[in-house]
Amino acid sequence: MAKRDVPLRWDRKMQQRLARGEAAALGELYDRFASLVHGLAHRVLDDERAADHITRDVFAHVWEHPDTYDPRQGPLRTWVATLTHRFAVQRLRATETAALVRGGPGTTEELETKVRHASVAARADYIVQSMPAPLRAALELAYFQRRDYRQTAADLGVTEDEARRRLRLGLQLLSTARDAAGAPHPPGAPPGYGGAA
Q1: Minimal CA–CA distance to 112: which of 87, 93, 127, 131?
Q2: Which of 18, 106, 109, 146 has the most CB atoms in a 10 Å sphere around its CB?
Q3: What was the pLDDT predicted at 7?
Q4: What span, in angstroms and rounded, lies between the C-alpha atoms of 33 and 117?
Q5: What is the pTM of this model?
Q6: Domain with residues 10-129, CATH architecture
Q7: What does the DSSP assignment read for the chain?
Q8: What integer pLDDT is reported at residue 99 of this predicted model?
Q9: What is the third-level CATH fold of 131-180?
Q10: Where are the domains of the chain?
Q11: Residue 54 in contact with residue 41, Cβ under 8 Å?
């Protein structure tokens, strides 16, 4: 139990430092989460420059509104990911809607499908990055190196039963990415993060 309190303690202290206007706190937060923010934004938008803009927007929001984070609702990392997702989806909708208005190809239904697919992909990335290292390692071996559970067990130095368990748990976690895209906020998922924002 004490192990789980440590990150939340860091999160609370970080929020307090940001609320006091400590620029060093923003720098630490940026160092810790910038690659997460940029990666999620890029996953939704598929555009490097747009992801750069979202990254700036997210950290500007955190700097200007640190009081909107409530440590009782979950980790700071999840809040930052939720902000990123929301901002990226808003930008995707705005950009694609503007293209439709200008007579570009597609329909509003296709736009919503694109938003849902981008949301699922970004949420899956977040889940993989957040899952415990043993589960992530098993999934990476199975997916990227095309290992079956026996080969995964040998590569990880675990029993075949343990390899199957890790793969099953990892895949169950990943399945929540797709489930959340078309459903209301599932228990335990970041608020507003899975569905169409």
Answers
A1: 93
A2: 18
A3: 56
A4: 23
A5: 0.69
A6: Orthogonal Bundle (1.10)
A7: -HHHHHHHHHHHHHHHHHHTT-HHHHHHHHHHHHHHHHHHHHHHH--HHHHHHHHHHHHHHHHH-GGG--GGGS-HHHHHHHHHHHHHHHHHHHHHHHHHHTT-S--HHHHHHHHHHHHHHHHHHHHHHHS-HHHHHHHHHHHHS---HHHHHHHHT--HHHHHHHHHHHHHHHHHHHHHHSSS--TTSPTTTSS--
A8: 80
A9: Arc Repressor Mutant, subunit A (1.10.10)
A10: 10-129, 131-180
A11: yes
Burial class, 1, CB count within 10 angstroms (exposed 0-12 / middle 13-18 / buried 19+): exposed
The letter for the amino acid at 139 is L
Residue count (the chain): 197
Nearest by Cα to 18 from 9, 7, 8, 29 = 29
Which residues, 6 or more positions from 86, have their beta carbon under 8 angstroms from its beta carbon?
Answer: 192, 197
